[in-house]
Amino acid sequence: MIYLTAFLVGGLFSVLGQILLDVVRLTPAHTTVTLVVLGAVLAGLGLYEPLLQFAGAGASVPVSSFGYSLVRGALDEVERYGIVGVITGMFEITSAGISSAILFSFLAALVFRPREKE
Questions:
Q1: pLDDT at residue number 26
Q2: Which of 39, 44, 83, 90 has the most CB atoms around its CB within 10 Å?
Q3: pTM for this model (two decimals)
Q4: Burial call 38-67: b when 16+ CB within 10 Å, e when fewer
């Protein structure tokens, strides 16, 4: 049952992204930013954590979880260090993911050769 729940919730995030692309006619960059901001807003309202408990990977894999991670990191560090924690918390919790994305993108660029569009 947990696989079905994760699939359905992750699928709803994907459907929302596709609607933003096709119906609202947002660019892919705007769609990504909108989903990240949605995750951040849900985290700020305290709604993303219950969604993670309910859907597991269905809520932690989509790009909206990046917004959740930013807010969660900032809030945790604000409790520990005060207002300075807003900046340090966002970078501390997301640095591993960003570093991995940069590293793997670089490795992919070394292995694959781009082609000209025809």
A1: 92
A2: 39
A3: 0.75
A4: bbbebbeeeebeebbeebbbbbbebbbbbb
Asked whether 55 and 5 are in contact (CB, 8 A), the reply is: yes
Q: Which residues contact 97 (CB under 8 A, 6 or more apart)?
A: 66, 69
CA 88 from chain centre, in angstroms, equals 18
Q: Among residues 65, 68, 76, 73, which one has the least CA distance to residue 90? A: 73
Per the rule left: phi > 0, alpha: psi between -120 and 50, beta: everything else, 48 is alpha
Report how many helices (DSSP H) and strands (DSSP E) the chain contains, helices first: 6, 0
Q: What is the pLDDT of residue 20?
A: 94
Task: Determine phi and psi for 114, rounding to 5 degrees.
Answer: -70, 150
Rg of the chain over Cα atoms, rounded to whole angstroms, equals 17
Tokens of 75: 């809030």
